[in-house]
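Dear H.,

Thanks for agreeing to be a second pair of eyes. The structure we're designing against is below in token form, covering all 338 positions.
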């Protein structure tokens, strides 16, 4: 040790090992979710590419259950990510060495203020989005959040940082989180539910969904319905695929992305999307038709390409094809069309 402090010879740094199985130990398992194959697929795609995800459906269909199982299928944080997340957690006194490599999971209540979510105070302190850095931010009952609070997430979703400015001090906190949100289809929650009749008028449904702005929804990569399942189907369904199997596929897809471009597909800069996500001729034709028929924005176009690239990585394909582009477009359908 004395020789190391004097500069000769130097000791090699010892890094804590983070075996994937140990890191996921104690987390909720995806095997607990029966049925909901489309939602499970969307969860895997979101994990593989780091994409934002919106789950909507009647109460009790498993939306929160699915969201809580996302950390269990995500790969462990590498050393740099773990140090960054630990630095933010230590500011709030929340550092737990036992979960050093485990991705944080934050789930603030819908009554949370903008300061609680993005950070604030006379002496600026990190909010929930920074405490979820390199992890998952889960917003349940999404339309119940104050609209101004949700609008404050738009910039961090794009940049991965948030700046908190006060009269005497200004601070910038990291906020590279993965957004997962859940909502009911209407105020009573039973629009489209075969088990119970919906009591809402079309005006009430439109007003409820109108609490979410178009620019905010445009930043969500995957929107998927979690429908009600008949009790007999639920009882007869076998246990779902365990998190360990899904995590292996996610890790393989993430490794491909790290080798190809050095970051998950969801974080690809706009200038790199055309280079790494360009589909084959069949996919290009389908995407061109979808752009015209669905009137997709430029942001939505890039997000479709990123999701299609993730689907191709999961399939082991060199380029997104028509099948991957079609599935990515399906995830971009607006709430109004469902």
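And this is the sequence the design step returned. I haven't edited it by hand at all.
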């Amino acid at each position: 040790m004395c020789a190391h402090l004097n500069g000769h010879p130097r000791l090699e740094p010892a890094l804590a090992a983070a075996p994937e199985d140990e890191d996921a130990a104690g987390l909720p398992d995806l095997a607990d979710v029966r049925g909901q194959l489309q939602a499970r697929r969307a969860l895997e795609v979101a994990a593989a590419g780091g994409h934002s995800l919106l789950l909507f459906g009647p109460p009790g269909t498993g939306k929160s259950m699915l969201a809580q199982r996302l950390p269990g299928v995500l790969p462990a944080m590498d050393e740099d990510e773990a140090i960054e997340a630990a630095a933010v957690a230590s500011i709030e006194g929340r550092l737990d060495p036992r979960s050093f490599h485990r991705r944080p999971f934050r789930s603030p209540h819908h009554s949370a203020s903008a300061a609680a979510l993005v950070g604030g105070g006379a002496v600026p302190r990190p909010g929930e989005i920074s405490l979820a850095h390199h992890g998952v931010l889960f917003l349940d009952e999404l339309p119940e959040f104050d609209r101004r609070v949700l609008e404050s997430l738009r910039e961090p979703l794009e940049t991965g940082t948030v700046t908190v400015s006060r009269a005497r001090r200004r601070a910038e906190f990291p906020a590279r989180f993965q957004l997962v949100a859940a909502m009911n289809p209407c105020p009573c929650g039973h629009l489209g539910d075969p088990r119970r009749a919906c009591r809402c008028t079309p005006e009430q449904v439109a007003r409820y969904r109108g609490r979410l702005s178009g620019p905010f929804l445009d930043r969500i990569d995957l929107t998927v319905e979690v429908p009600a399942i008949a009790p007999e189907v639920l009882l007869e369904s076998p246990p779902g695929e365990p998190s360990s199997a899904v995590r292996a596929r996610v890790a393989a897809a993430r490794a491909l992305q790290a080798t190809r471009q050095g970051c998950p597909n969801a974080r690809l800069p706009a200038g790199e999307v055309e280079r790494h996500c360009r589909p084959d001729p069949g996919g290009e034709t389908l995407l061109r038709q979808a752009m015209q028929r669905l009137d997709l924005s430029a942001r939505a176009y890039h997000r479709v390409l990123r999701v299609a690239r993730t689907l191709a990585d999961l399939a082991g394909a060199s380029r997104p094809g028509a099948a991957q582009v079609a599935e990515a477009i399906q995830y971009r359908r607006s709430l109004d069309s469902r």
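Two observations from my side: The first helix runs from residue 2 to 5. The mean pLDDT is 90.

Warmly,
E.
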